[in-house]
Every structure is written in structure tokens, then in C-alpha cells.
Design a protein that fits this description.
The complex is a heterodimer of chains A (298) and B (596). Chain A is α/β, with parallel strands linked by helices and 298 residues long. Chain A has a single domain, classed as Rossmann fold (3-Layer(aba) Sandwich), CATH 3.40.50.970. Helices cover 30% and strands 16% of the residues of chain A. In chain A, α1 packs across α6, α3 crosses α4 and α5 packs antiparallel against α8. The longest helix of chain A is centred in the N-terminal third of the chain and has 15 residues. Chain A is globular, with a radius of gyration of 20 Å. Chain A starts with 29 loop residues before the first helix and ends with a helix. Chain B has four domains: 176 residues, 3-Layer(aba) Sandwich (Pyruvate-ferredoxin Oxidoreductase, domain 3), CATH 3.40.920.10; 172 residues, Thiamin diphosphate (ThDP)-binding fold, Pyr/PP domains (Rossmann fold, 3-Layer(aba) Sandwich), CATH 3.40.50; 60 residues, no CATH class; 116 residues, Rossmann fold (3-Layer(aba) Sandwich). About 1% of the residues of chain B have low confidence. Chain B is globular, with a radius of gyration of 26 Å. Chain B is of the alpha/beta class and 596 residues long. Classes of the chains: A alpha/beta (298), B alpha/beta (596). The interface between A and B is large, with 60 and 74 residues. β2 of chain A pairs parallel with β17 of chain B, so a sheet runs across the interface.
Chain lengths: 298, 596
């Protein structure tokens, strides 16, 4: 998504500190995501009042309260719909959407698919811990086959969703995956995602230290391989991205899978916005126009 | 009694019932006549049965009326269904090549058009319709010139040849009737007025444009889709962002997002879509982000009868979303009011930062009415309430971190800063929160704060009540019977009162427009003087009667209810009132005699 104009005032980490400290469990992967988002905003020098951070419901969805930007902590699964409205009403704002895998791929799955095909200009960060945490540990749409949770005590018999393949198929124009423990890499992906003009999807492995004992930091560390380390990998190649998205097991790719920059974002495709954001538009419609509306009916 | 003239046009969907209807409507409104049109149709694109009623006259025409003066059946089915409705003085124009009339009452003129010998039906498939329109207008005493003018407009996009072919066919029908049929006893008058003819859906869409709506989102659902269609077609001229969304959950949340960013946003749906929006209404209330949602009721429950009218969603509106929160709920009284009510409810929603719900129904949404263009006011009062759109605003702080989005105030309303304004960053949350927006649902949970925030929001209820006028009684103060209705039944009850008065039973009317706030005390003040009270509504269980009782303990003497999918006709109410005044019953459920 495109960067809002930086103000002359310098943006520092302290400016982005929320009113309260995060109340995530000690060791939660979400701390790393919060830090990386704050670093990215500082590096891009985007003033906090021009950023709207929007979430759904869940542990990771408490995110907007922990960062000093305009924030919206909406309904479970509905963050992308709300964010689309915000962006279309004022496309000069930088819109960040933050949430978890249950929120985004479960209850919010419909909005996830349609927001991507619309190419809404925002960065969607999913803190993917493959479990429902705030409801104390149930199977999520990304829980692996066989994983035992309170809701599937004998192991999941349902195949997980593949967020990266799904995003590629649905038409996201920027698709990436990060790992909460890889701060520098993650910060760089967030910056790219914010700067990308269109829908940027960033799935982040953000381990749940309380309820997910399968997909831990220790489990991920030896497996994650940065796509950026492969000089032959071309993130403009959609077929190659699909191929990489299917890898899981001993090698799990992280990094930018795919980006295309030739498509207009939703707000750029609608001429109603040519004159500027709707929030600045006059409330009254010119009289010659309204007279014509009535004349049609006579 | 008011002089009116009513036409019924029946046929299968796809047979072109709408076009003759549009032509008649245009001609009547241009003669300065009022009109009311209602199309009884089915959830089918081709086939089935559609029956359009257009009633016109020099004075306001508020409903479909009781009597048909002219029937135009486009197929045998329509003839069989409706000929029996005609009484002395009425006429039926039909294609005698394909349709056989059945038994007609004495004094009904059967006007046979030998269509194949009058027009080339191999070239023009709707020749019978055009011939009938021409014949009908001749019998009404309307000059051919006005028909020619409308046909010109109707067909000019298709080229000169199509125009002249249709004008030619219409002329043949017109002249054939002049030579062979008896004109109606009451030639249609003409006045100097000119009216716009519009549906409630168009009225609500235009009312939104007038209110300054900049964002409209929707998912198609009968009978609300007409709002989307007008918005989509006029969006670029009106400067409105219109989005068709994946479902109604997305619709309402997208509208809330746009509203939160600072624009007026609106969406429309029917009962099923509204059910999906409920959680979003709670979000609007909790984040104190105003949004206006229109519910165009259709016959429920579930998918119900998508093309039929009902007032069956009242309790859904009253109970939409869990928890207690302030809301405004208004039911437009007629199609002109569909326009006016939108800017009004936006002002309430904006001032009190809460959801506003407009409870319309299919009868108004898809019905059509003549409206004086002066009543379509595109410069209504716009009050956006306490909105901070730039950093120099007096309210709140400037960058010192002391701005409190949910500041506890006497009115319950806290100045609302929109994203982008420096120095006012805050989080708006669906979780309970403190004055500064910090959640009090987790480690900061605190019963004292929760109570204070609940009371802050709920204080807005008193403000809304003071901002909305109480209902008034129409008609003579001291009447034999008081008819109580809400929303779309205004016109038909009004006419029933007139007929009752002519029959020697004085009647007055209490029609409710604002359902929340209800103004229960004002209603009780009016009703305590009433001699005999009857609540009239288009649903099974008496949803309004139950609501009124729950708010005021008031119990009426009787009820008139209808839940067959069709609207009331005046005589339904008149007969039921007589029946109830004679002590025969306390609940009347009139049968709909038109087979649609």
C-alpha cells in the first residue's frame, strides 16, 4: 500500500508507543510484530495521525491499542471490511490491518478473499499462530492435520488452509510471509507492504507459547528459509510463487513470494475519487445536478 | 368522495406489463394528476403473473383504492383472475384474437381488440399492449398528442423507425376505440401542476444524496435493490462511492469504516440482510460511529415471499444486536417521506453518534407516487454534530495526549475526531473502553468505569427523544373510532377514515413515524381521550400493538391485521371497523380478493 506524505516532524519510536503496554503472554510472537511495525513506520517516517490500524478480535487483534496511531478494534473477522470503508472514504490515510489466523481465515474468510480481488490499498498482517488463543486453545484454520487441541482432542482431521496459495489465487498483488523472530527481515517486509500500492498480504509466523506446543520458535527456526537468499527466485513470477507456497515441512519459505505493480488499487479505479478524498468533499450536490435528477422523474 | 380513476394491467412477467404502466404514469403526471402505482409480482423473471395497479386523480392519491375502472389483461390468465373485480361503469380492453372474456358484471364494457387485423404482430410482439394503451387513453378522453410525446421519448433511443411504428400502432388503437367503444363517464381532468413520479427506493436514495451521503454499500436483496440501482447509476454525478459487497456483514462494516473516516454512509437491505448486519449495528453504537441502515421489509420469516409486502420486521429492529445501546428507528409514512426521512435520521445519527434505522417496506420501496418536485429538497438542514475535522478545533487537545474520544459528558455525546487529524489519535473499540479508548475488558476491567460508560452512552437516549417530534392525531378530536398505524399504512388508513366519515362513523388517525424514540407519554395523552381504538398493521402478531403495550401498557379495543403479502385496501379497513364497532369481533384479518 502507498505511503502517506510524511510530515516535517520527525517520527520516533516513542511517538508510536500506545497508551498501555501489551498484555500478551510473555514470549508471544506478537511482540515482535508490534516492534517491527513501529520500526517500519519510523523508517518510513509516516506520522501516526495519518495511520489507521484496524483489527478484528483475538489476542493479536488487541494490536491497535498498543500502538499510537488512529485505531479501530472492530468485530471478529470484519477488520478488512471496515478497513475498505476507511480507505475509500479517505485514501490519503495509511491503512494497516492486523489480526490472527482465526479472525482472518476463519470467520473473516469471505472478506479476506474479496478484499484481495478488489486490490484495496492496505497492508494486512496476520499474526498466524495456528491456534485460537483468546478462547484458550482450539483448532484454527491453519492448525496442522493431526494437531490436538481442546476442540479436537483426538487430532484435527481437517486439512489446514494455505494462506499464501489462497492469497495468490485470490489476486493479492503483494504476498509475503515473515517470522516474528526474524525482526530485520520482518520489518523490511512490512515496509515493502506499506509502500506497495494495492492489497499487501503478510502472513507472519507468530508462535503462541501458551497453547501451541507443536509450532514453536524451536520448530520454525531450522525450517524457515528466506526467499531473498535465493538469487534465482523472481517474485514477479506468479507460477513460481505458487510452487513455493506449497512447500511445508523441512523447508518453509519466508519472504516476498509475489508482487505485481501494474494493477490499479481500488481507490484509483473509481473516478468518484479523482477530486480527492470523500472526507474533504462538499456535502451539497450542485443544483444543476440535482435538478437533472428530479427532471428524470417527470 | 375523491374522484379517482384506476387501471389494472395484468400478464406474465416478461410480457411487458411495466411499459404501458410507465406510459400511463407519465401521461397522468404531466396532466397534473396525482398517481399511486403498485405492482403485485412474483419471484420469477419470465412467466408467472404480474398485476400493476395505477390509480390517478386531481387530488392526492395515497393508495391503490378499492375499485378498478379499466382492466387490461395481457393474457387469458389475467382475464380469468381479474374480470370479476370490475363493476358497473368499468371496462376491459383485451386482445380478442387470443383472450376470451368470462362472466362480467352488469354495466362492464368488454372492449375486444382484433389485434392481428389492426397491427402486424409478426413485426411487433407487444402490439397488443400499445393498441390497448391507445384505446384506453381515447376512452379516458386524453388527447393523442400526449401519448405520441411519451412514445417518442420511450423509443427514441431505438431510432426513428421504431418510434413511428409504435406511434402508428397506438394511433390505430386510439382511433379504433373512438369509433367502437363507449368513453368513460369521467373524462380525465387536467391541472396546471407537474409532478415527479418515483418509487420509495429512488426517494430514499435521493434523500441520501441530499443528506450528503458519500458512501453507499449494498448486497442485492429485494425489495431494497432499487436503492442500489439509483445510487450506482447516479454515483459519479453525485460524488458518492457506491460498492456492491460480498455479503451484508461486509456491507454494514464497510459503511461503518467509511463513516468512521468522516463521511456520511448508508446501506439498504431487507430483513434477511439486516439479520446479518445486526452485530455491526452494535459496533456502530459501541464505537459511537453513526451509520444509517434501511430495512425494506418483505414477507418473512427466512427467505419468505421476496416480492410481497409486510410490516413484520419491527421486533428485529428493536432487538437488533445484543446489549443495550441508543438507536433511532423511523418508518416513512409515504414515498415522499422516504426522501425527507433520510436527512432527518442522519442528523440524529450524527448528533448522537449512534446507528439510525429506517424501516421501510415493499409497498413504499417499490410502489410509485406522484410527488411535488418542491418536496424533493436537496438542501435540507445538515447537522453533523460534534465532529473534529481539523487540529484547530476548539474541543479536545492538540498533541498533548489529553484528547478523550469517549469523554464523559452530560449529554453522553463526546466530540469525535476523524483519522488524519493531528493530536487526536485514539482507538475506537468494540470492546468496552474507558474515556480515552483504552479497553476495560481485559486487565483494566472495572465495574465503576463500565457503569459510567454505559450511562454515558445511554444518556443519549434522552437527547434523541428531545430531538424528535411526538406524533399528532389527524382528523376530528372527538371521533367514534381512532385508527392507529405506523409507517406505510398512512395513506390507506387516511382514506378508510374518509370513507367511514361518509358512512356516518367519525374516525381519526394516529400514525407513528418515529418508533424509537416512541414518545409513549404523548401517545397515551392522545389515546386516553379516544372512544374506540384499533391498531392496523401488516403482520400476523400485531408487532406494533405488542411494542406499544410493552412501552405504555396501552391495550387497544381491537386489531386489524393482514399478512397475506398484499397491502391493505381501504374497504378492508372500513369493513373491519364496522364489524368491530358492532361488537362482532376484536381481531379482523381481511381477505385479499385480488388473485395475485
Amino acid at each position: 500500500m502507498a505511503t502517506a506524505l510524511a510530515a516535517t516532524n520527525h517520527v520516533a519510536m516513542a511517538d508510536l508507543k500506545g497508551k498501555v503496554e501489551p498484555d500478551w503472554c510473555p514470549g508471544c510472537g506478537d511482540f515482535g510484530v508490534l516492534a517491527a511495525v513501529q520500526k517500519a513506520l519510523v523508517e518510513l517516517q509516516i506520522p501516526s495521525h495519518n495511520v489507521v490500524t484496524i483489527s478484528g478480535i483475538g489476542c493479536s487483534s488487541n494490536f491497535p491499542g498498543f500502538i499510537n496511531t488512529y485505531g479501530m478494534h472492530t468485530l471478529h473477522g470484519r477488520a478488512l471490511a471496515v478497513a475498505t470503508g476507511v480507505k475509500l472514504a479517505n485514501h490519503e490515510l495509511t491503512v494497516l490491518v492486523t489480526g490472527g489466523d482465526g479472525d482472518g481465515f476463519g470467520i473473516g474468510g469471505n472478506h479476506f478473499v474479496h478484499s484481495m480481488r478488489r486490490n484495496v490499498d492496505l497492508l494486512y498482517i496476520v499474526m498466524d499462530n495456528q491456534i485460537y488463543g483468546l478462547t484458550t486453545g482450539q483448532t484454527s484454520p491453519t492448525s496442522r492435520l493431526g494437531m490436538k487441541t481442546k476442540s479436537m482432542p483426538f487430532g484435527s482431521i481437517e486439512a489446514p488452509v494455505n494462506p499464501i496459495s489462497l492469497a495468490l489465487a485470490a489476486g493479492a498483488t503483494f504476498v509475503a510471509r515473515g517470522f516474528s523472530a526474524e525482526q530485520k527481515h520482518l520489518t523490511d517486509l512490512i515496509k515493502q507492504g506499506i509502500q506497495h500500492k494495492g492489497f499487501s498480504f503478510l502472513d507472519v509466523f507468530s508462535p503462541c507459547v501458551t497453547y501451541n506446543h507443536d509450532n514453536t520458535y524451536q520448530w520454525f527456526r531450522p525450517r524457515v528459509k528466506k526467499l531473498e537468499d535465493d538469487t534465482r527466485y523472481d517474485s514477479a513470477d506468479w507460477m513460481a510463487a505458487i510452487g513455493k507456497s506449497l512447500l511445508w515441512g523441512e523447508e518453509i519459505p519466508i519472504g516476498k513470494f509475489f508482487e505485481r505493480t501494474d494493477l490499479p488499487a481500488l481507490h484509483e479505479a473509481e473516478p468518484v475519487l479523482d477530486a480527492g478524498p470523500l472526507t474533504h468533499a462538499a456535502l451539497r450536490i450542485p443544483e444543476d445536478v440535482t435538478r437533472a435528477f428530479i427532471e428524470e422523474l417527470m | 368522495m375523491k374522484q379517482t380513476f384506476a387501471i389494472g394491467i395484468g400478464g406474465a412477467a416478461g410480457q411487458g406489463v411495466a411499459t404501458p404502466g410507465d406510459i400511463f404514469a407519465k401521461i397522468f403526471s404531466r396532466r397534473g394528476l396525482h398517481l399511486n402505482a403498485y405492482n403485485a409480482y412474483q419471484s420469477i423473471i419470465r412467466g408467472g403473473h404480474t398485476f400493476l395497479t395505477i390509480r390517478t386523480g386531481p387530488e392526492r392519491v395515497t393508495n391503490m383504492g378499492d375499485r378498478l375502472d379499466l382492466l387490461i389483461p395481457l393474457n387469458q390468465d389475467a382475464m380469468d383472475r381479474h374480470l370479476g373485480l370490475l363493476t358497473d361503469g368499468a371496462a376491459c380492453i383485451y386482445n380478442s384474437d387470443t383472450i376470451k372474456p368470462g362472466f362480467a358484471a352488469a354495466g362492464v364494457q368488454l372492449c375486444a381488440l382484433p389485434v392481428a387485423s389492426l397491427a402486424d404482430i409478426t413485426r411487433n410482439k407487444v402490439a397488443q399492449n400499445t393498441l390497448a394503451v391507445g384505446a384506453g387513453l381515447s376512452m379516458m378522453g386524453v388527447g393523442f398528442q400526449s401519448l405520441e410525446e411519451v412514445l417518442n421519448e420511450q423509443f427514441k433511443k431505438k431510432g426513428e423507425a421504431v418510434v413511428s411504428e409504435n406511434v402508428g400502432i397506438a394511433r390505430v388503437g386510439y382511433d379504433y376505440a373512438t369509433a367502437n367503444f363507449r368513453p368513460f363517464a369521467w373524462p380525465l381532468p387536467m391541472t396546471g401542476n407537474r409532478y415527479a413520479v418515483l418509487s420509495g427506493n429512488i426517494a430514499m436514495a435521493m434523500g441520501g444524496a441530499a443528506a450528503g451521503v458519500k458512501f453507499y454499500s449494498a448486497y442485492p436483496m429485494s425489495p431494497s435493490t432499487g436503492v442500489l440501482h439509483w445510487m450506482a447509476a447516479h454515483a459519479r454525478k453525485a460524488g458518492i462511492m457506491v460498492r456492491q459487497v460480498e455479503d451484508e456483514i461486509g456491507v454494514v462494516n464497510m459503511a461503518i469504516g467509511a463513516a468512521h473516516a468522516g463521511v456520511r454512509s448508508m446501506c439498504a437491505t431487507s430483513g434477511g440482510g439486516f439479520a446479518l448486519m445486526s452485530e455491526g449495528l452494535g459496533l456502530s453504537a459501541m464505537m459511537e460511529t453513526p451509520v444509517v441502515v434501511i430495512d425494506c421489509q418483505r414477507a418473512g420469516p427466512s427467505t419468505g415471499v421476496p416480492t410481497k409486502t409486510e410490516q413484520g420486521d419491527l421486533w428485529q429492529m428493536l432487538g437488533a444486536a445484543f446489549g443495550d445501546y441508543p438507536r433511532a428507528l423511523a418508518a416513512p409514512l409515504d414515498i415522499g417521506d422516504c426522501f425527507k426521512i433520510i436527512p432527518e435520521i442522519f442528523n440524529i445519527a450524527d448528533r448522537f453518534q449512534c446507528p439510525g434505522i429506517v424501516l421501510c417496506d415493499l409497498l413504499l420501496s417499490e410502489g410509485r407516487l406522484s410527488v411535488d418536485p418542491k418536496d424533493l429538497d436537496f438542501v435540507p438542514v445538515i447537522d453533523r454534530g460534534e465532529l473534529i475535522t481539523n487540529a484547530s478545533a476548539a474541543s479536545g487537545a492538540n498533541g498533548d495526549g489529553t484528547y478523550k474520544r469517549y469523554k464523559i459528558t452530560q449529554s453522553g455525546v463526546s466530540p469525535r475526531a476523524i483519522p488524519g487529524v493531528p493530536g487526536h489519535t485514539h482507538t475506537a473499540a468494540s470492546d468496552e473502553h474507558d474515556e480515552d479508548g483504552v479497553l476495560i475488558s481485559d486487565e483494566f476491567t472495572n465495574p465503576t468505569k463500565r457503569r459510567a460508560m454505559m450511562e454515558k452512552r445511554m444518556r443519549k437516549v434522552a437527547g434523541i427523544e428531545a430531538a424528535v417530534p411526538p406524533p399528532v392525531l389527524w382528523g376530528p378530536r372527538d371521533a367514534d373510532v381512532t385508527l392507529i398505524g405506523w409507517g406505510s399504512t398512512k395513506g390507506v388508513i387516511e382514506e378508510a377514515c374518509e370513507i367511514l366519515s361518509e358512512q356516518g362513523i367519525s374516525a381519526n388517525q394516529l400514525q407513528i413515524r418515529w418508533l424509537v424514540p416512541l414518545h409513549g407519554d404523548a401517545i397515551l395523552d392522545i389515546l386516553k381521550h379516544a372512544r374506540h381504538t384499533i391498531i392496523v398493521e401488516n403482520n400476523y402478531s400485531g408487532q406494533f400493538a405488542r411494542y406499544l403495550r410493552s412501552e405504555t401498557s396501552f391495550v387497544p379495543n381491537g386489531h386489524i391485521r393482514k399478512y397475506d403479502g398484499e397491502p391493505f385496501m381501504p374497504h378492508h379497513i372500513v369493513e373491519a371497523v364496522r364489524e368491530q364497532l358492532s361488537g362482532k369481533c376484536k381481531l379482523s384479518v381481511p381477505a385479499h380478493e385480488i388473485l395475485v
